[in-house]
Design brief:
Elements: H1 2-7, H2 12-35, H3 43-56, H4 67-90, H5 105-117, H6 124-138, H7 141-150, E1 152-153, H8 155-182, H9 187-209, E2 217-218
Antiparallel strand pairs: 1-2
Length: 221
Protein backbone atom coordinates (compact mmCIF):
# COMPACT_ATOMS: atom_id res chain seq x y z
CA UNK A 1 0.00 0.00 0.00
CA UNK A 2 2.88 2.36 0.81
CA UNK A 3 4.38 1.58 -2.60
CA UNK A 4 1.02 2.41 -4.21
CA UNK A 5 0.82 5.84 -2.58
CA UNK A 6 4.46 6.60 -3.42
CA UNK A 7 3.95 5.87 -7.11
CA UNK A 8 1.08 8.40 -7.29
CA UNK A 9 3.13 11.45 -6.18
CA UNK A 10 3.01 14.43 -8.54
CA UNK A 11 5.77 16.57 -10.09
CA UNK A 12 6.12 18.77 -13.18
CA UNK A 13 7.24 15.92 -15.44
CA UNK A 14 4.33 13.71 -14.45
CA UNK A 15 1.86 16.60 -14.80
CA UNK A 16 3.21 17.46 -18.27
CA UNK A 17 3.07 13.76 -19.18
CA UNK A 18 -0.56 13.58 -18.06
CA UNK A 19 -1.41 16.68 -20.11
CA UNK A 20 0.31 15.16 -23.17
CA UNK A 21 -1.73 11.99 -22.65
CA UNK A 22 -4.94 14.04 -22.39
CA UNK A 23 -4.01 15.94 -25.55
CA UNK A 24 -3.47 12.68 -27.45
CA UNK A 25 -6.90 11.39 -26.48
CA UNK A 26 -8.64 14.69 -27.30
CA UNK A 27 -6.89 14.80 -30.71
CA UNK A 28 -8.03 11.25 -31.46
CA UNK A 29 -11.66 11.79 -30.41
CA UNK A 30 -11.90 15.10 -32.30
CA UNK A 31 -10.38 13.50 -35.39
CA UNK A 32 -12.94 10.69 -35.37
CA UNK A 33 -15.90 12.95 -34.55
CA UNK A 34 -15.12 15.79 -36.96
CA UNK A 35 -14.29 13.58 -39.94
CA UNK A 36 -17.03 11.06 -39.02
CA UNK A 37 -14.39 8.46 -39.78
CA UNK A 38 -11.90 6.24 -37.96
CA UNK A 39 -9.81 5.53 -41.05
CA UNK A 40 -6.15 5.02 -40.20
CA UNK A 41 -6.85 4.26 -36.52
CA UNK A 42 -6.24 0.79 -35.09
CA UNK A 43 -9.31 -0.46 -33.25
CA UNK A 44 -7.19 -3.20 -31.71
CA UNK A 45 -4.86 -0.68 -30.08
CA UNK A 46 -7.90 1.18 -28.72
CA UNK A 47 -9.30 -2.05 -27.25
CA UNK A 48 -5.95 -2.71 -25.57
CA UNK A 49 -5.91 0.81 -24.11
CA UNK A 50 -9.41 0.26 -22.73
CA UNK A 51 -8.22 -2.97 -21.09
CA UNK A 52 -5.20 -1.08 -19.71
CA UNK A 53 -7.30 1.65 -18.09
CA UNK A 54 -9.99 -0.64 -16.69
CA UNK A 55 -7.47 -3.04 -15.14
CA UNK A 56 -5.32 -0.19 -13.75
CA UNK A 57 -8.08 1.98 -12.38
CA UNK A 58 -10.34 -0.56 -10.70
CA UNK A 59 -8.87 0.90 -7.50
CA UNK A 60 -11.34 3.76 -8.06
CA UNK A 61 -13.62 1.62 -5.94
CA UNK A 62 -11.15 1.18 -3.09
CA UNK A 63 -8.62 4.06 -2.99
CA UNK A 64 -9.05 7.83 -3.03
CA UNK A 65 -5.84 9.81 -3.65
CA UNK A 66 -7.12 13.20 -4.77
CA UNK A 67 -9.86 14.77 -6.87
CA UNK A 68 -7.35 15.21 -9.73
CA UNK A 69 -6.41 11.54 -9.57
CA UNK A 70 -10.03 10.38 -9.53
CA UNK A 71 -11.13 12.68 -12.39
CA UNK A 72 -8.19 11.54 -14.54
CA UNK A 73 -8.98 7.86 -13.96
CA UNK A 74 -12.64 8.34 -14.87
CA UNK A 75 -11.68 10.36 -17.97
CA UNK A 76 -9.23 7.73 -19.23
CA UNK A 77 -11.71 4.88 -18.83
CA UNK A 78 -14.62 6.85 -20.31
CA UNK A 79 -12.62 8.22 -23.26
CA UNK A 80 -11.19 4.79 -24.12
CA UNK A 81 -14.69 3.26 -23.99
CA UNK A 82 -16.04 6.12 -26.14
CA UNK A 83 -13.29 5.60 -28.72
CA UNK A 84 -14.03 1.87 -28.97
CA UNK A 85 -17.75 2.65 -29.29
CA UNK A 86 -17.15 5.19 -32.08
CA UNK A 87 -14.92 2.77 -33.97
CA UNK A 88 -16.91 -0.43 -33.66
CA UNK A 89 -20.47 0.91 -33.52
CA UNK A 90 -21.14 4.49 -34.66
CA UNK A 91 -18.55 4.73 -37.46
CA UNK A 92 -17.99 1.04 -38.01
CA UNK A 93 -18.35 1.41 -41.79
CA UNK A 94 -15.18 3.56 -41.90
CA UNK A 95 -13.04 1.19 -39.82
CA UNK A 96 -10.19 -0.28 -41.86
CA UNK A 97 -10.18 -3.84 -40.54
CA UNK A 98 -8.26 -5.12 -43.55
CA UNK A 99 -5.11 -3.34 -42.36
CA UNK A 100 -5.73 -3.74 -38.61
CA UNK A 101 -4.58 -7.35 -38.47
CA UNK A 102 -2.14 -7.50 -35.55
CA UNK A 103 -2.74 -10.60 -33.37
CA UNK A 104 -3.34 -8.99 -29.97
CA UNK A 105 -3.50 -12.35 -28.20
CA UNK A 106 0.27 -12.46 -28.67
CA UNK A 107 0.43 -9.35 -26.48
CA UNK A 108 -2.26 -10.19 -23.93
CA UNK A 109 -0.97 -13.68 -23.09
CA UNK A 110 2.65 -12.75 -22.28
CA UNK A 111 1.51 -9.66 -20.32
CA UNK A 112 -0.75 -11.80 -18.13
CA UNK A 113 2.07 -14.29 -17.47
CA UNK A 114 4.59 -11.53 -16.73
CA UNK A 115 2.18 -9.86 -14.30
CA UNK A 116 1.71 -13.13 -12.43
CA UNK A 117 5.46 -13.77 -12.22
CA UNK A 118 7.03 -10.30 -11.97
CA UNK A 119 5.12 -8.02 -9.58
CA UNK A 120 5.64 -6.07 -6.36
CA UNK A 121 3.03 -8.01 -4.42
CA UNK A 122 0.93 -11.06 -5.23
CA UNK A 123 -2.49 -9.48 -4.70
CA UNK A 124 -5.35 -8.99 -7.15
CA UNK A 125 -5.08 -5.18 -7.42
CA UNK A 126 -1.29 -5.20 -7.68
CA UNK A 127 -1.30 -7.90 -10.37
CA UNK A 128 -3.93 -5.94 -12.33
CA UNK A 129 -1.83 -2.77 -12.03
CA UNK A 130 1.30 -4.64 -13.15
CA UNK A 131 -0.57 -6.25 -16.06
CA UNK A 132 -1.77 -2.80 -17.17
CA UNK A 133 1.79 -1.43 -17.11
CA UNK A 134 3.12 -4.31 -19.21
CA UNK A 135 0.20 -4.13 -21.64
CA UNK A 136 0.40 -0.35 -22.06
CA UNK A 137 4.05 -0.66 -23.09
CA UNK A 138 3.03 -2.68 -26.18
CA UNK A 139 -0.57 -1.55 -26.77
CA UNK A 140 0.50 0.83 -29.54
CA UNK A 141 2.00 -2.01 -31.62
CA UNK A 142 -1.22 -2.74 -33.59
CA UNK A 143 -1.36 0.98 -34.52
CA UNK A 144 2.29 1.09 -35.59
CA UNK A 145 1.80 -2.19 -37.46
CA UNK A 146 -1.20 -0.67 -39.26
CA UNK A 147 0.83 2.41 -40.26
CA UNK A 148 3.58 0.12 -41.57
CA UNK A 149 1.04 -1.82 -43.67
CA UNK A 150 -0.55 1.27 -45.21
CA UNK A 151 2.82 3.01 -45.54
CA UNK A 152 1.53 6.39 -44.32
CA UNK A 153 -0.45 8.22 -41.66
CA UNK A 154 -2.67 11.31 -41.78
CA UNK A 155 -1.19 14.40 -40.11
CA UNK A 156 -3.81 14.34 -37.34
CA UNK A 157 -3.07 10.66 -36.65
CA UNK A 158 0.63 11.55 -36.52
CA UNK A 159 -0.06 14.31 -33.96
CA UNK A 160 -2.01 11.80 -31.85
CA UNK A 161 0.85 9.28 -31.93
CA UNK A 162 3.45 11.94 -31.14
CA UNK A 163 1.48 13.21 -28.11
CA UNK A 164 0.99 9.63 -26.92
CA UNK A 165 4.67 8.82 -27.28
CA UNK A 166 5.68 12.07 -25.57
CA UNK A 167 3.52 11.19 -22.57
CA UNK A 168 5.55 8.06 -21.88
CA UNK A 169 8.90 9.78 -22.52
CA UNK A 170 7.93 12.46 -19.99
CA UNK A 171 7.09 9.75 -17.48
CA UNK A 172 10.66 8.46 -17.79
CA UNK A 173 11.86 11.95 -16.83
CA UNK A 174 9.38 11.76 -13.95
CA UNK A 175 11.04 8.57 -12.67
CA UNK A 176 14.53 10.03 -13.04
CA UNK A 177 13.46 13.15 -11.15
CA UNK A 178 11.87 11.09 -8.37
CA UNK A 179 14.94 8.90 -8.05
CA UNK A 180 17.21 11.92 -7.49
CA UNK A 181 14.79 13.89 -5.27
CA UNK A 182 13.10 11.08 -3.31
CA UNK A 183 15.39 8.06 -3.82
CA UNK A 184 12.27 6.25 -5.05
CA UNK A 185 11.94 4.18 -8.19
CA UNK A 186 9.57 1.56 -9.58
CA UNK A 187 11.58 -0.80 -11.75
CA UNK A 188 8.51 -2.32 -13.43
CA UNK A 189 7.15 1.08 -14.53
CA UNK A 190 10.59 2.29 -15.62
CA UNK A 191 11.44 -0.75 -17.77
CA UNK A 192 7.95 -0.85 -19.33
CA UNK A 193 8.10 2.91 -20.01
CA UNK A 194 11.49 2.55 -21.70
CA UNK A 195 10.19 -0.29 -23.89
CA UNK A 196 7.19 1.81 -24.88
CA UNK A 197 9.33 4.85 -25.71
CA UNK A 198 11.79 2.77 -27.76
CA UNK A 199 8.87 1.50 -29.89
CA UNK A 200 8.14 5.12 -30.83
CA UNK A 201 11.72 6.07 -31.78
CA UNK A 202 11.38 5.55 -35.55
CA UNK A 203 8.05 7.35 -35.52
CA UNK A 204 9.51 10.29 -33.55
CA UNK A 205 12.25 10.65 -36.16
CA UNK A 206 9.78 10.65 -39.07
CA UNK A 207 7.46 13.05 -37.23
CA UNK A 208 10.23 15.58 -36.60
CA UNK A 209 11.77 15.33 -40.09
CA UNK A 210 8.51 15.24 -42.08
CA UNK A 211 5.28 16.16 -40.28
CA UNK A 212 6.71 19.23 -38.53
CA UNK A 213 7.88 20.44 -41.95
CA UNK A 214 4.37 20.15 -43.34
CA UNK A 215 4.89 16.89 -45.18
CA UNK A 216 2.75 13.76 -44.93
CA UNK A 217 4.19 10.98 -42.82
CA UNK A 218 5.17 8.26 -45.26
CA UNK A 219 7.36 5.30 -44.43
CA UNK A 220 10.46 4.67 -46.55
CA UNK A 221 9.79 2.16 -49.32
Amino acid sequence: LIHFYKRTKMNIFRLTGDLSHLLAIVILLLKIWKTRSCAGISGKSQILFLVVFVSRYLDLLTNFISLYNTVMKIFFIASAAATVYLMYVKFKATYDGNHDTFRIEFLLGPCVLLALVLNHEFSVMEILWTFSIYLESVAILPQLFMVSKTGEAESITSHYLFALGSYRALYILNWIYRYYTESFYDIIAIVAGCVQTILYCDFFYLYITKVLKGKKLQLPA
